[in-house]
Design brief:
It contains 2 helices and 10 strands; from the N terminus they run βββββββαββαβ. It is α+β, with helices and mostly antiparallel strands and 147 residues long. The protein folds into 2 domains: 70 residues, HSP40/DNAj peptide-binding domain (Sandwich); 61 residues, 2-Layer Sandwich (Alpha-Beta Plaits), CATH 3.30.70. It starts with a strand and ends in a 14-residue tail after the last strand.
C-alpha cells in the first residue's frame, strides 16, 4: 500500500507511476485514505496544512514511487460579467463570505451554493453551472478552509 508523505512541485518530466484525481476539497486534506482509479487504496500523510495543486507530485515513503495530482472535474458555478468592475464586485461579495473562489481575469468559480447563486444573480452577473476542475485561491495566509 502506498503512503504519500512528501509533496514535490509540478514536473512534467517526472517518472510517475499513476495519477490521482482529487476535488478541491480533497486536495486540502493532509491525512486521508483514498482510492485510485484502478481501485488501489493509498494514504496521504503529508505535513498538516499541505494544500495540493494540479500537477503536484507525491512521493511514497517506502518505494519512492511518484504520483501526479490532477484537479478532478466537479460541479461548480462559473461567474462571468459584462464588465471588469462587475466581476470585481462579485469577487468582493464572495470574499466577504469567506468561500473558496477560483479567480481569473475572465471568470470566478466556486462550489455550488443556492444562496450565493441568488446573491450573484442580484449583482447582475452571469452564472453557468458546469463540471470543471476547481482550483480556488489558497488565501492570504496560504491556508484553505471549507466553511
Amino acid at each position: 500500500m502506498l503512503t504519500f508523505t512528501q509533496k514535490k512541485p509540478p514536473n512534467p518530466n517526472a517518472a510517475v507511476v499513476s495519477t490521482l484525481s482529487l476535488t478541491a476539497e480533497e486536495r486540502t486534506r493532509s491525512r486521508h485514505r483514498l482510492q485510485m482509479e484502478d481501485g488501489q487504496v493509498v494514504f496521504l500523510r503529508l505535513p498538516r496544512g499541505t494544500v495540493l495543486q494540479d500537477g503536484d507530485i507525491l512521493v511514497d515513503e517506502t518505494t519512492g514511487s511518484l504520483v501526479r495530482i490532477t484537479a478532478k472535474p466537479e460541479p461548480v458555478l462559473t461567474v462571468v460579467a459584462k464588465t471588469t468592475i462587475d466581476l470585481l464586485k462579485a469577487a468582493y461579495h464572495l470574499g466577504n463570505r469567506h468561500v473558496p473562489v477560483e479567480i481569473t481575469s475572465a471568470y470566478l468559480r466556486l462550489s455550488p451554493d443556492p444562496v450565493l447563486q441568488v446573491m450573484l444573480q442580484q449583482l447582475g452577473v452571469e452564472i453557468k453551472e458546469e463540471i470543471s476542475p476547481f482550483q480556488p485561491e489558497a488565501g492570504a495566509y496560504g491556508h484553505h478552509h471549507s466553511h
